[in-house]
Write a structure and sequence with these properties.
It contains 8 helices and 9 strands. The chain is α+β, with helices and mostly antiparallel strands and 247 residues long. Strands 1, 2, 3, 4, 5, 6, 7, 8 and 9 form a 9-stranded mixed sheet that branches. InterPro entries: Acyl_CoA_acyltransferase (IPR016181).
Length: 247
């Protein structure tokens, strides 16, 4: 697909179309408290780290968010087991304290449903890497959400992340895109995102009765949701996979 990929800083008029773009995210994912409170601030604080892809007709077909942060600050050094949530909190903490960033983390790459299957995600990932390189960074990291893991939620994430095809590339399509682009799978982030809520809310999000005690498989969830009908709540703790891209 012929794409024009630019930063939001270069084309601020694409802000509204970017947010209005269709996506395939499960509804419950947006209720992670960190996502709920901070995602909309990324285009405001770092428009140069937000990429928007448009097709030949000017329609927005993909977006990519990333944030700069100080991985090598005191007390850090390693990619956090808290994954997506942790790196977002680090980035905004660094911004508030005026700490100099040394690394860029991908936060989201989303492709519109009608543009999927045309290699768009790979092009946008390459553009995200190049954007970071052009801004003087030597490394991009990504808490990757394996996009086929939801098909086998009972499989341990460590086993799934390390599974490969006969050609040596990852079994998971999204991890495969990252590795083909030069990324190296480093480790699992076991608690990358957490969504908790009342059973009433979970029923609204999923359309499921969620009246069974214990682990319940929910469409779109990478691992089962822990349900407590007797106490009226459910909790989802999503694992992601850290991938490191040297630039």
């Amino acid at each position: 697909m012929d794409l024009k990929i630019t930063s939001l800083a270069e084309r601020p008029e694409l802000t509204d179309p970017m947010w209005a773009m269709d996506d395939t995210w499960a509804e419950f994912v947006q209720y992670d408290p960190v996502a709920w409170s901070l995602m909309t601030r990324i285009p405001v604080e770092w428009p140069e780290h937000v990429l928007v892809a448009t097709d030949a007709g000017g329609k927005v077909v993909a977006r990519a968010f990333s944030v700069p942060f100080a991985l090598r600050a005191e007390g850090r050094g390693e990619l956090p087991g808290g994954g997506w949530d942790a790196v977002m909190l680090w980035a905004f903490s660094d911004l508030k304290r005026g700490r100099e960033p040394d690394t860029v983390s991908a936060i989201e790459i989303t492709v519109a449903p009608d543009a999927q299957g045309h290699g768009v995600s790979g092009q946008v990932l390459a553009a995200l890497r190049e954007n970071a390189r052009g801004r003087g960074f030597a490394e991009v990291v990504a808490p990757v959400r394996p996009n086929a893991k939801h098909l086998e939620p009972a499989t341990p994430i460590e086993e799934y992340a390390r599974r490969t095809r006969p050609d040596g590339l990852p079994h998971d399509p999204w991890l495969r895109v990252h590795v083909r682009a030069g990324g190296v799978i480093e480790k699992v982030a076991p608690a990358s995102m957490t969504v908790s809520g009342t059973l009433e809310r979970w029923r609204e999000w999923t359309g499921l009765p969620l009246d069974e005690e214990g682990l319940v498989e929910v469409p779109g969830a990478l691992v089962p949701v822990h349900c407590e009908p007797g106490r009226g709540y459910a909790v989802y703790v999503e694992p992601n996979v850290w991938v490191r891209h040297a630039l």
